[in-house]
Write a structure and sequence with these properties.
alpha+beta, seven-stranded mixed β-sheet, 27 helices, 34% helix, flat
């Protein structure tokens, strides 16, 4: 629009109270028919200051559009402003869906109504398909990024947009936020609310003042929020913007400030949750330094305006459910925006946007600690102090510090800013706030401090100009200004009254350091080097692309203990997916056995040493009589490959029968019989001609379901008989004894017994793939084939038997093993090596001595019951599969059609990671949680898992 001559427009400060239009449905229907020529049905929609309806042609379920009855205080020019801005965005950003005015029998449906409540403007806007983000459910980072991208696209499209009505004065224009607060704050009857808003607003105004006059101005939507964006059907990321009711000219950065505010009330959101949106906006609009400085103060002011305006609107119109329903989330926005000091949030935002860090403040006074011999203790994830679970002991650090003092050190310290795992006595539920902001100090002798000191509760405060050191742990001697000897002291540094929390996230820790400085500098300690980790980038550079890792942005895991994994930042995760570490991570007995054997001998398995024979006896003893011969290899793929070759050699035939949807490995033979399309989308059509498949015997989502699953075995028998009749008698049949790849689905009762009998009737061999489910994991049975009341001829096993060490085995009868000579000799350099054998025996020791099969039965049973309870409350849960500690939780969009919830399952796993739980999907549709934690897991830990999963299913993913 070219004419920019100002016209009379709304000024909020001349009419603070904005009663919402409240026309009755019958009046709306009558006026609609009269002016637009269409008989309609209506469905009321919420609004804070307008009246909105979704309208349908009479008797139809297809919406005609959204009827917007604008508040009478807004002029015709302002309504034209809104429509013109929407058109401009649609034109400049065609990838953003924007609703247009609907055309009716008499042309565009936009006119003035003379109603019972006066003159009101009515217009019908397209009802574009999709769902808003309304409510306070969790927003994934990709969704938050999408919000920021939409705000950036709208801002860019309106960068040069002008209109005579753009000078309207709205309560939502952040240029006027301070004035709105000053107007509404004295009117609020709640003193506690007034105090909270006043404190937050005063800090925001002070931070904003130095840059306010330099902030760029332009027209904007200024309400690209969770309520005003849409996701297309089936999509997760928003791509549409609605409701241009707040269009005006204001500070450009206000666009993203408003968007950020709408993120903060969602489940689990913190200020850091908004960083993806800010980064996306910055890519489109390149925020200046002044705008970055202004951003979080504006978010706080937006929160304050929302709180006061919402409460004022409810006092004015207590029947406005939309306004009253928003009060809690509006207060949460303000609380979150003010939860971190503004200078810290600004520094963290600058870092998130890739801007250079500013120099941290030095310490201008004399260092507090005297010179002397100093020892710095390492309490990080990889420190030897934390071995064998010692990190869980509150005394570990003190013992190490006192030992250093006893050895002659004058001072022992633990630095700030470096992840501190030692002394994490309550690791679950997991928290991301793991980076300490304090230095820990132990003194060999008491130290009398010089300078300005005072006591504050149990802490001693040392001040130096605007800076202060808070020293905790000196309670008894604090009044005298003396720091006691041989006592743990915590020293935190603050500036201008900003005191960091004891621990925080990595991003905020770096920002706190930039703002408040390193407490180590005040003590005369060398600075802690800033964290920098390029290992993921280097992994991508030097490893093959197909050698994938879990998660798009994975934590860097550097320690494990029992059912816990710890990343380099000291965050503890609950490992619910790791059947490789069968007896728990870093089990002391397994570690000691491997270490001891490494001290003695480790060589290839052609040498003669006792361990390999001892281990072969031990593993054979777990199987039925007749399994007397063992081959050792290094992995499950090698084990199943060798098992197939054994069957071929023993029978002199090439053909193998395999079950569809299974995964057996990546070697040539094991891959040939793997038909899971999740692992290889072309699995079925690329099988070699010697592989013959039978239906996946999945009684939940296979061809035969429920009671009809009994048909799988006869049909598989028919395939085997047919092969024999065609002159291709199979060498063997390979199957997982429990459908592990599908998420722990039990095979139909008696399936293997019937199929094994058919294979043997034609001279073939039965191969049991126990790589995933064997070794006590099922609880009731040590081996999966026992659940089927069947005995195979060859057993392939790996994963669990090594407890994390590369170890696999094939166990069979002597006469079968001897036939392998027809294909040459067998040799595996490190299969069954001295160290592998020692570790393998140690794993069996632990399973037997600690009763881990029974633990799988008891804890797994409890876990299964709790998962089944989730299914009673969450429609997404289709079924709970499995036994013991090999369980599968299958997610479906419809319990009748069993449409797999693939996208949802991936999102659930990602959110579980945020909540500190490691979980991954499985199955051909990747819609099953593969639940197979270390066998040492406790009832308390599985409760943490289910509670986290319940939270995710309840609040969104």
């Amino acid at each position: 629009m070219n004419d920019t001559t100002p016209v009379p427009v709304f000024d909020y400060f001349r009419q603070v109270d904005l009663p919402t239009p409240t026309l009755r449905d019958d009046e709306v229907q009558s006026l609609f028919a009269e002016t637009f020529g269409v008989e309609i049905d209506v469905q009321a929609l919420g609004s804070q200051q307008d009246q909105n309806f979704r309208v349908f042609p009479r008797g139809s379920t297809e919406p005609l559009g959204v009827l917007k009855l604008s508040n009478p205080v807004f002029s015709e020019a302002e309504i034209d402003l809104q429509d013109a801005a929407a058109s401009r965005v649609a034109e400049r950003s065609p990838h953003v869906r924007i609703p247009r005015i609907v055309d009716g029998p008499h042309g565009p449906m936009s006119t003035w109504w003379d109603s019972s409540q006066g003159r009101i403007h009515a217009r019908v806007i397209e009802n574009i398909a999709g769902r808003t983000l309304t409510g306070s459910s969790y927003l994934a980072p990709a969704v938050v990024e999408g919000l920021g991208a939409l705000a950036g696209a709208v801002s860019l499209a309106l960068a040069d947009f002008t209109h005579p009505a753009s000078g309207r004065v709205l309560q939502w224009d952040l240029r006027h936020a301070a004035r709105v607060i000053d107007t509404l704050l004295p009117l609020d009857p709640d003193a506690e609310v007034r105090g909270t808003v006043q404190r937050a607003a005063d800090a925001a105004r002070a931070a904003l003042a130095p840059v306010a006059d330099a902030l760029p101005l332009q027209a904007g939507h200024f309400d690209v929020t969770d309520d005003n964006v849409l996701r297309a059907p089936g999509a997760t990321v928003p791509d549409a913007v609605i409701d241009f009711g707040d269009v005006c000219a204001s500070w450009r950065v206000g666009e993203i400030a408003v968007t950020v505010s709408s993120v903060l009330h969602h489940d689990g959101a913190t200020p850091e949750s908004a960083f993806p949106a800010i980064r996306a906006f910055d890519r489109a609009r390149d925020l200046g330094d002044d705008e970055i400085t202004a951003l979080w103060p504006l978010v706080v002011l937006r929160g304050a305006v929302l709180v006061l305006s919402g409460r004022a609107q409810v006092r004015l119109d207590d029947a406005n459910d939309y306004a009253s329903g928003a009060l809690e989330r509006e207060f949460r926005i303000l609380e979150q925006a003010a939860s971190v000091p503004l200078p810290v949030l600004t520094a963290a935002t600058r870092a998130a946007l890739g801007r250079p860090r500013r120099s941290e403040p030095g310490w201008t006074g004399t260092p507090l600690l005297p010179p002397g011999r100093r020892v710095e203790l390492d309490a990080s994830t990889e420190s030897p102090l934390n071995d064998a679970g010692a990190w869980l002991d509150a005394a570990t650090l003190d013992d190490a510090a006192l030992a250093a003092l006893d050895a002659g050190a004058d001072i022992a310290t633990v630095p700030a800013w470096r992840a501190r795992l030692t002394g994490t006595t309550d690791p679950l539920p997991s928290t991301a706030e793991t980076v300490p902001t304090d230095v820990l100090v132990w003194l060999a002798e008491p130290l009398l401090l010089d300078g300005d000191t005072r006591v504050d509760g149990d802490a001693l405060i040392v001040t130096e100009d605007a800076e202060a050191l808070t020293i905790s742990g000196a309670a008894a001697a604090a009044a005298s200004g003396t720091l006691p000897a041989r006592t743990r002291l915590s020293v935190r540094r603050s500036v201008d009254g900003l005191v960091p929390p004891p621990r925080t996230t990595r991003a905020l820790a770096d920002a706190w350091r930039e703002v408040a400085g390193d407490p180590g500098a005040a003590l005369g300690l060398p600075p802690t080097a800033p964290a920098h980790d390029d290992s993921l980038q280097r992994r991508h550079e030097v490893l093959a692309e197909v050698q994938e890792h879990y998660y798009g942005v994975p934590p860097r895991i550097e320690r494990g203990w029992r059912e816990l994994l710890i990343d380099v930042e000291g965050r503890v995760y609950l490992d619910m997916v790791n059947n490789v570490a069968s007896v728990g991570h870093a089990h002391p007995h397994v570690v000691a056995a491997g270490s001891r054997q490494m001290h003695l001998l480790n060589t290839n398995s052609r040498f003669h040493y006792r361990a390999i024979a001892d281990y072969a006896d031990r593993i054979a003893a777990t199987l039925p009589d007749g399994f007397d011969t063992v081959f050792f290899v290094n992995s499950g793929s090698e084990a199943t490959d060798l098992a197939i070759r054994l069957a071929m050699a023993a029978t002199g035939r090439p053909d193998i029968v395999a079950m569809r949807e299974a995964y057996h490995g990546w070697t040539y033979a094991s891959d040939a019989v793997s038909t899971s399309i999740a692992d290889n989308p072309f699995a079925l059509e690329t099988r070699p001609e010697w592989v013959h498949t039978v239906d996946a015997a999945n009684s939940y989502r296979g061809r035969h379901r429920g009671a009809d699953a009994v048909r799988y075995a006869p049909e598989a028998v028919a395939v085997i008989d047919g092969l024999a009749a065609s002159g291709r008698r199979p060498a063997g049949m390979i199957a997982e004894t429990y459908f592990g790849n599908a998420g722990g689905v039990a095979l139909p009762d008696g399936y293997l017994r019937e199929v094994y009998a058919a294979v043997r009737r034609h001279g073939g061999l039965a191969i049991a793939d126990e790589v995933q489910v064997g070794y006590g994991r099922l609880g009731e049975w040590f081996w999966g084939f026992q659940q089927q009341d069947a005995v195979p001829d060859i057993v392939a096993v790996a994963k669990s038997i090594g407890g994390g060490h590369p170890l696999g085995a094939v166990i069979t009868r002597r006469e079968i093993a001897d036939r392998y000579r027809t294909q040459g000799y067998f040799f595996s350099s490190t299969g069954g090596s001295p160290v592998s054998s020692a570790i393998g025996m140690a794993v069996l020791d632990v399973i037997e001595q600690e009763g881990l099969q029974e633990n799988a039965r008891v804890v797994g049973g409890h876990l299964q019951r709790r998962l089944e309870e989730l299914g009673e409350r969450h429609d997404l849960v289709g079924a709970v599969h499995g036994s013991g500690l090999y369980l599968g939780l299958e997610f479906v969009r419809d319990r009748e059609t069993l449409e797999p919830a693939t996208t949802e399952t991936a999102a659930i796993c990602d959110r579980l990671l945020e909540r500190g739980v490691i979980m991954q999907p499985t199955g051909d549709f990747q819609n099953v949680l593969k639940i197979k934690p270390p066998l040492v897991i406790t009832r308390a830990s599985v409760d943490v898992f289910v509670d986290a999963l319940d939270r995710v299913l309840s609040t969104g993913f």
